[in-house]
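Supplementary Text 2. Reproducibility record for the structural model of the 488-residue chain.

All settings were left at their defaults, and a single model was retained for analysis rather than an ensemble. We include the record here because the model underlies the residue-level annotations in Supplementary Table 4.
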Amino acid sequence: MASLTTATDTDGPAGAATSPAGTVVPHLSVAERVARGKAARAEVPRASHAIFTPSPERPDPLEVLERQAATRVPELVPIRYGRMLVSPFTFYRGAAMIMAGDLAATPRSGLTVQCCGDAHLSNFGVFASPERRLVFDLNDFDETLPGPWEWDLKRLAVSMLIAAINNSFAVKDQERIVLACAEAYRDAMQGFASISNLDVWYAHMDIDDVLRDLGPQLNPGMAKRTEKTLAKARTRDSMSAFAKLTETVDGRVRIFDQAPLIVPLDKLVSDGEREQMYDELHALVRRYRETLEFDRRVLVEEFELADFARKVVGVGSVGTRAWIALMLGRDEHDPLFLQIKEAEASVFEPFLGPSGFANHGERVVVGQRLMQASSDIFLGWLHIDSGLDGQARDFYVRQLRDWKGSAEIEQMIPKGMAAYGRLCGWTLARAHARSGDRIAIASYLGNGSSFDRAMLDFANAYAEQNERDYRRLTKAVSSGKIVAQTGL
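Retained model, structure tokens:
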């Protein structure tokens, strides 16, 4: 069995779940784990995390982006640059690889968790649990890999600051937002350190509970906007996608052409290749089903593949191969949309070592299941030996929509963004507590605000670097060095 981490003499109790079969993993006492955190703090002081100084050897950020572009669909890369060009915040969303290199040069506590790898505030949101309740959680795991917990928290803290700057908030409000997020992470980790392993595993953030707790803190306008966002999320399912993305042609339901953002397979292959491609796609769906639990496999087998299309997704992911598959159940009014998204190596791998999984789709799925309180029942993976371009590629599979919704960051007021930052901080701490030594991390963080202040200082320094990098992109586009397609 592939492993998430390699067990060592200092591995925490989570090592039993993440180390190779047969490895003897020590189970430290609570006192030993507290001491472990304090020892890490003595070796790497919390204040050291405040510092960000670009290395003299720091690669040109545009060269980093261009290296990523080399493996992507060429005609889609300008769309990625166009989306990154909108603002410093959208640039930051697409610059996970750039920041990974910068984080690698910063101090490390030595305490490892399953990292998201791209934990900015727009990669949190709401979706339906299998029990059909709306929950709040992390929702993007393309870059997941075991690594330093502080890397995720730093990326989240910086995103909070850049979003606050982008919204033209006052400096004091910017600081409160970042500090609220960092404090929520620290407080939550302290809480998780004090409860049982099973209570940590079952912890989740139900939206109804959140609204009950936060309701008194929201003014009428904020409350109304929140309710509207959640109501919209509950309508985002396969039926809504079906109405938006399909049409009936000669009695058959098809995904209609919305090039370049959605391109049906019929437009990408010749008439002579179409039938062969569909035969291969049916075989791929059958192979994907084998990665599901048996009961979910039975459910998927009730659906038949009806159509297939390439879809542009996200900001940082634009240009990777992402597909949507239209599946039909009992009739044409029983649709299921699956998203089949390419999984490349995590941006953390050049700095932390390769994944323990041969298939990057499996890496994403395992990381997601480990970090999320409840995951999509259709989450699986597959490998393609030869795609449209003749290259072997890994993919992971999930529902295209399942009550998914995200906060409208640009519409937030300072108080609302601070509240949202606290939700993100708690959620990230819970995700890390499931895989890492939560007691040692809590001991490292301590009860004071020292680490929170370090996160604010780091965020300020890195936001300035992000602004410089963003301006390099704008100049490169203006000069014609890089081609960007805007408005998509």
